[in-house]
Amino acid sequence: MMSQPRTQESTLPEEIRQGLKRDDQGLVAAVIQQYDTGEVLMLGWMDDEALQRTLSTGRVTFWSRSRAEYWRKGDTSGHRQYVKSVALDCDGDALLVQVDQVGAACHTGTRTCFDERSLHAVTGHRDDH
Length: 129
Hints:
Layout (H helix, E strand, L loop, with lengths): L13 H6 L8 E7 L5 E7 L1 H10 L3 E4 L4 E4 L8 E8 L5 E8 L28
Parallel strand pairs: 1-6
Antiparallel strand pairs: 1-2, 3-4, 5-6
């Protein structure tokens, strides 16, 4: 069972609040990317409070759906994420957070959460005329 974030008055600036399209649990997907290499590290979830903390502290904060609490990457592992930029996508339903990752981004101990489970896919080719 997934828990929803606490309901509280948002401290996000109005223009950011208005631009967000949250899911039915009040969350927005946050793609985490290494700022200097472009490597996609992980996907996390943020509500308004997690985003506000991320924007105002320089460290990435997520809402844990399984633990029903806020968590800041690296507080227990030491594998911190230092914010370099945050962007909202064109639909307002996803964030791109560029970070300087210290250590592993994945809870399994790997650099990225996308290392281990590649899916077979047909490779597409451009038809340049």
